[in-house]
Every structure is written in structure tokens, then in C-alpha cells.
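Quick one - first record:
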Amino acid sequence: MNAGEERSTRAPPVVSRQYDNGVSGTHRDREKEILIADTGFSALVTAGLLDRAGFDPLLAPSPSDRSPPRVTVIWEPGLRVLDQLGLRQSVERCGTPVTELDRTSSEKSWEADGSTEIALVAIKRDQLRALLEQAVRGRVRETNRAVTALESAASGVQATFDHEGTESFDVAVTADQSLSADQTAEPDGRVHTWECHQFETTSRATESWGPSAATFSTPTGDSTSLRFVTTAETPARAAVSADAIADRFSHLSSPPADLRRVLKNGGFEYRRVRLAAPTSVSTGQIGLIGPAARTAL
């Protein structure tokens, strides 16, 4: 199966396998057909790691491929993963080291120790995507046909491309919740997110949580990224009103006092996604990664 792309001539990996009779031998396993149904950050990282492990994954867009937040915050475990792709130093150089995270009204605040090792980095969306694409794209196979359905089968996974062509894979992973049937959804539930920038610099990030809302501020070099999230019902008109947004989050302590001015003068980005949580991170030969695998905001 090639999904419209030429197959790589890379030889399948040679592995050492322990047989039932206890004799260890060298066995040339057939190359697994692995589909990555998404092109977001998690998908690109997964494709890069599989490529370096000797596999030949196919990268394809999904129906809900959407832009991630303007700023991505990466902790030490994520930085170690990026190190496997040779990207840690580039991310630390392009991003903004965060030395303190203040979780308002919580004992779980964090402050960097005296180590020279960077443990928390904030990097802008476009910068991270450029680094990942440079490191991964060109090394893995891609198709521009969108994966519109995934279904577990006895032989692996059946993937439907553009609602018509169906092809077989051994394994599939996706960051798109709409491709996973194994999830629980809140009836008519939505997660509403707003993002904007405040042109003041700080080295401290903040979080503030309420019963159905949260606010985040993250330093990004020459500015501070502000993100507001709620699962409460939000009428369409209120979703695009700076006054309504400011009123909704004013009870949380981390928004700036002049949030109305920030929203009105600088503008904001609004997104709404379905509120659903996976009941498992894998079903059959279909695995969930990134946003699809999260059980909470």
C-alpha cells in the first residue's frame, strides 16, 4: 500500500528475536505499515521518532487538523523527546525559558532550581512548527489525502481517505478525536478558548483555575501570551465580545486588570472544540496521541 506515494527503498529493520525453544536468532521482520492520521505537533514528533527507529510511517492530514495554541509550553520530559530528534537546543534557543510558574491559590506552584539545565520553555507556534517540519518533513512519506475514518480490523486497521478509498495498515495513530469511536462526549459540550497578547515581559508564567474556567499567562520573549478557557455555555455573540470575555474571567486572579483594553486593542483568537474524553488511549490497533489522548483540559 502506498496511498499515492512512492515507497521508500529503506530496508526493514533487523531485530533479534527470542524463539519459543530458547534459541536466539536474527530475524528480518516485515516492515510495519504505520499510518499517522494528523499533521499537528504530536503527529510530527511521532513520525520523526518512528523514522529514527527504522520504520517508514505515512503522514496524512485528518478532518480536524487545527492550529494549536499560539504558544506551546514544553516541560523537561518533552524537551527530552525533542532531544531525540536533535531539536532540544534549537527549541531552547528560539523559545523563552520560564523560571517560575505561579498557580494561583494552589500549593503546586513551581520555581526553577539553580541548575543550568532548562526545565520549562515557552515557544511560539510558528517557530515550533518550522523546526519540526525542517527535522521531519522530507524524511517521511506524506499524502495530501485526508483520513476521514479509521476502523479496527482483524488484520490491523482500515483507513478511509477522502470518504472513498479504503486502505489497510498494521497500526494507526491519530491526534484527531473525531477518528476515535472510543470516547465519552458531553452532550453538546464545548471547550471555548481565547488567546491574545499583552506587550509586557516577564519570566513568570501563571495559572488560575475555577470550577469551569481557567486562565494562563506565558512569557514569550517580547510579550506575554494570555489564554482563557471555559467549558461553560457560551453564546455566539458573547464569544466574540471583548466585554463579555473580560466579565467572564474577571473573577480569576491572573488576568490583567486592563483585560478589556488588551482584547480590544490587540484582538484575540477564538476556538471552539467538542468536549470529549477518551475512555482508552488505544482501541485495537488504533492509538491516540496529543490532544485526542487527553482526559482533561
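second record:
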Amino acid sequence: MTQKTPLLTALYAFGVAAFIIGAILLFAAYAPDNDTLESAGIITLLVAWAVLVNAAIMDALRHRS
């Protein structure tokens, strides 16, 4: 197994952190019924998903070559 590059490690870390933040925002949105927090949580989760998928694709392409 090859080592991950610093960029891939940073992408995975950012994606996981964004996923956790998005989940917290969505959880907080339903307590006061706040639409702004709900939107922010959904957007953050979408960004986290995109970053994690991007990192996984980059990792797979790196292992393929």
C-alpha cells in the first residue's frame, strides 16, 4: 500500500470535518426551526460529499498508474 500525498490527506480531513460540521448544522436547524441553518447544513454536506468523492477518485487514479 502506497502512502497518501499531503494533498489527499488534507482533502480527506477537510471532507470529514465538513461532513461533521454539516451534520451539526442540520441538527441545530431543527431545534429553533431555522431555515438558514438548514440550508447551510445541506450545502456543507454537499461540499463534504464532493470533496470526499474527489479525494477518493484522485486516490484511485493515483493507485491505478
